[in-house]
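seq as requested:
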Amino acid sequence: MNALSRRRFLKITGTTVGAAAAGGAALKASQILTQPRSGSKGIQKIPTYCDICFWKCGAIAYLKDGRLWKVEGNPEDPLSRGRLCPRGTGGVGAHYDPDRLKAPLLRMTKRGNEEWVEVTWDQAFDYIADRMQKIKKKYGPESVALFSHGIGGNFFKHTLKAFGTPNIAAPSFAQCRGPRDAGFRLTFGEDVSSPERTDIKNAECLVLIGSHLGENMHNSQVQEFAQAVENGATIIVVDPRFSIAASKAKYYLPIKPGTDLALILAWMNVIVKEGLYDQEYVQKYGFGFEQFATSITEYTPEWAYPETGIQPEIIRKTAREMARYKPATLVHPGRHVTWYGDDTQRSRAIALLNALLGSWGRKGGFYYPVGMDVPSYPYPAYPKTVKEKVDNPAKKYPFAHEAITTGIREATITEQPYPIKGWFVYATNLIQALPNEQETIKAIQNLDLMVVIDVIPSEIAGWADVVLPESVYLERYDDLNVEWFREPFVALRQPAVESPNDQKPNWWMAKKLAEKLGLGQYYPWNDIEEYFDVRLKSAGLSLSELKKKGIIKGAQQPIYFDEGIPADFSTPSGKIEFYSVQLAKAGFDPVPKYKRPAGGPPGYFRLLFGRAPVHSFGRTQSNRILSDMMDENEIWVNKKAATRLGVKSGDYVRLKNQDGVVSNKIKVKATERIRPDCVYMVHGFGHTSKMLKHAYMKGASDSQLITRYETDPLMGGTGMNVNFVTIVWEEA
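struct tokens:
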């Protein structure tokens, strides 16, 4: 250990957690309570915005006698409207989590062993900067990549761009929403944004295809869903599983997994053949409609029935129901849409169905989001990169408009088109986020440097060379949230309490690292409040007002075509493209075509996975408040299939996938609410990091079982619903 004291060496075991005090003693939960603000008595209210998911809801943190007490929604915020989801109200548990990272850690043995020495921040930055400069000298600055999730990564993106790398990616594109965004861009010339521009509250008919509103807890969408139900909107749900949303539906279609595109094509066939589409809208705004109409003539409800398992009369009834309420019919685009590898074409079909109904730019369909003009900080120009990005060489995936995470991973393994030797990983657990964790581990072993910045010691941290502990969102400032939404606003995340140990905010880390790299000119401000002040003053806004209110709203602006929004479409034709010439030129189907998905081995079930309303990915299982509501996941199995297999609800089993990978034990939920050809589990459980003492090995990890994926040829997304499992006894 040389210059580092042996007294500060920490070996993580099943009974020793996190960064301990000198001598290696584990910290007790009571020891991490923050010191109350000096002299603070009574109740204090501090506005901020949430970080449990990407929705970034406005919140108010309450302190009681100087200690963090509770978090509620900010009634002035358009995203929360005064109400938070269970994850948001449980955010207090992130602050008090005894398993959270507490001090910088430096790896002492081979990667993956979870053996560390605790170091100072200065030592950590010296180590990182030295390794980065060596990589830069030998391979060029482009050989360092950043994987980032959420607004907290903005300043690390800034530092890495200043260093000279273009290789910055988020799993939210290739592993989540990318096919949806590409499909809508190909059709309308722009995507549906985040948060989505869905006008759910004004929809008279809402169609959900694998979208689990009420389980996938995006706050304002769920509130608007409740409004739509209360207003008597027709709800149509397409899902192999009877979800919470399905319980509100007039029509529930228990579709055969992987055949959604067949159903959408049949719906469009009915709507076109019976003349039920918005003919004026299509004639005014559409391009290539006749070619489109000809292409879908074969996809009748009778054709779709053996593919989907949905009766032809139900297909016709639901198609007519959608047409009845046009243009206030919203076919929801979904978010996590990386399913089978043809996902861009399926999403494009959803876009085309909405176009037939005239819902784009119309009330009850898709509004045009608006935002405030808050200029960026006037930084110096970034250095010009010599090399192109590695994730999509020669535009292999021609319609990828963002970086592809698995493309960076592949380049790290193959060193083509050039080597990637350094990874920064901010707030994303790549072991669980990317399919085929063995490929991720293989890439990591080819690195000269991996730095993980996070709040909790996730599985990816166990493979890092350096782990940097971030303050939780209730303890830090983050970048301004200048949101595009139904109404324009700018929101501030600000600290309500101090960090309990040696955690630091991301902006501080990114700034200090830049200074170590000799890039101080890219951080001319002394602290983040000075940064805020420059940006806000340039917009005519006040930091003091924003700190007091948490949010400043702009004037309401038009959001529909009939309110004056120009119907401009950034497509090659300048119109809604029912027939895509650019797809045809690139060698792809200009109108979506159905291809039957491959099946699994005999006796296996298709593995489906999703979200729970009380957890956010795999980030919250150590949060004691949220884990009290759900501390393990279950495997949903059709009741008849469970009886055939000799298992019942409450039994513990293991899952074995088609490649022989066996999961941790998981509890059975035998139910009639799922088809007999598939099983379902909530994502984010089965943690194998011993540092996550509370969540360790509770439930099973779907990520471990996702050893196969189909890559979308249009934009590089990874379809992950192509894995199959069978049930084996817990003793296996």
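Residues 1-34 have pLDDT under 50 and may be disordered.
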